[in-house]
Amino acid sequence: MVSINEGVQPPKTRRQETASAMASHNGHPLYEVVGELERFDERDNVFARSALKPGSPEYQAYYARYPEREKPDSHCRVMMDPVEGPRRRAELFPEEPLARAFSGAVGLTAYLLADHLDGPISPERVEIEPSAMSRHLKA
């Protein structure tokens, strides 16, 4: 016969303790809920949208509800494609390997902001010490 002690919790694993410590301080949450929480539809995150196949019923239904998202999502889908994305970035930055590496995120940002920016790209190249750029990127 096995005896069960009611009310006695098994000890927390190290992983559970770490997760708990990251989300709270002295047992109190590190955040405050202000207002009513709304449910988030996971279909609205960019990774779920990138998995939609053009022409599929899910694709048609989603972009019928949000037509303004179809153009940027299509661009994102091409840039994230394992074959097409690197080829496009290589065309955009033929002699700039670092720019090519960052172009996935930066290129998408520039594409999404293109209608909101004015003026041409500066022809003047800015030189910066690698250590200074490293500090800037890691900050």
Could you walk me through the main structural features you see in this protein, from its secondary elements to its overall organization?
- It is a single chain.
- By secondary structure, the chain is an all-alpha fold.
- It has a domain at 42-116.
- It contains seven helices and two strands, in the order αββαααααα.
- It has helices at residues 14-23, 46-50, 57-65, 70-80, 84-92, 97-113, 130-138, and strands at 24-25, 28-29.
- Strands 1-2 form a two-stranded antiparallel ribbon.
- A hairpin with a 2-residue loop joins β1 (24-25) and β2.
- The radius of gyration is 24 Å and the shape is extended.
- The N and C termini lie far apart (59 Å).
Distance between the termini: 59 Å
Q: Give the strand line-up of the largest sheet.
A: 1-2
Q: How many strands, what sense, and barrel or not for the largest sheet?
A: 2 strands, antiparallel
Shape: extended
Low-confidence stretches: none
Helices and strands, in order, run as: HEEHHHHHH
Record the SSE blueprint.
Elements: H1 14-23, E1 24-25, E2 28-29, H2 46-50, H3 57-65, H4 70-80, H5 84-92, H6 97-113, H7 130-138
Antiparallel strand pairs: 1-2
Helix pairs in contact: 4-5, 4-6, 5-6
Keywords, separated by commas or semicolons:
single chain, 139 residues, two-stranded antiparallel sheet, 2 strands, 50% helix, 3% strand, extended
Give a quick summary of the entry.
The chain is built from 7 helices and 2 strands; from the N terminus they run αββαααααα. It has helices spanning about 15-25, 45-50, 55-65, 70-80, 85-90, 95-115, 130-139; strands at about 25, 30.
